[in-house]
Amino acid sequence: QVQLQESGGGSVQSGGSLRLSCAASLYTGYTASMAWFRQVPGKGREQIAAIDRDGTTSVADSVQGRFTISQDTAKNTVYLEMNNLNVEDTAMYYCAAGSRSAIWTGNFRDWGQGVQVTVSS
Q1: CA separation (Å) from 58 to 10, 18, 50?
Q2: Looking at the DSSP assignment, which residues form a beta bridge with residue 113?
Q3: Parallel, antiparallel, or unpaired: how do β-strands 110-111 and 18-24 relate?
Q4: How many CA atoms lie within 13 A of 94 on its CB side?
Q5: pLDDT by residue (tens digit) across 37-70?
């Protein structure tokens, strides 16, 4: 099982920015795709951005133009740059890793513990 360690969460005012990082303990076929999800209490997890090893990305409409996913394959690390944050972005953000097809199927095998992002007005 791949260990995923997220960092970079915190509190920010509306309109501000944050950058999340997720470091995978190793590269395997199950880190061929990595993604960021978010969840608010009482709702299901929402996949907001994903990237495969070749750099193909998928970004949810809800964050398109504000959030950018990127990676450093040498470090087995994926990033989520979040700009122009608003209160609706407040959630627990989770990093996930899976096979190459996971970027499209949403079926990720391994999950991080999550980091809280809180946006105040």
Answers
A1: 24, 19, 5
A2: none
A3: unpaired
A4: 17
A5: 999 999 999 999 999 999 999 999 999 999 999 9
Instruction: Give the C-alpha separation, 103 to 83, whole Å.
Output: 22
Q: Tell me the percentage of the chain whose pLDDT exceeds 70.
A: 100
Q: Residues 6 or more apart from 64 whose CB is under 8 A from it?
A: none
Taking the C-alpha atoms of residue 75 and residue 50, their distance in angstroms, rounded to an integer, is: 17
Residue 63 has a CB neighbour count (10 Å cut-off) of: 21
Q: Per DSSP, what are the bridge partners of residue 108?
A: none
What is the distance between the alpha carbons of residues 65 and 92, in angstroms, rounded to a whole number? Answer: 20
User: Distance (Å, rounded) from C-alpha 18 to C-alpha 82?
Assistant: 5
Decide the pairing of beta strands 46-52 and 57-59: antiparallel
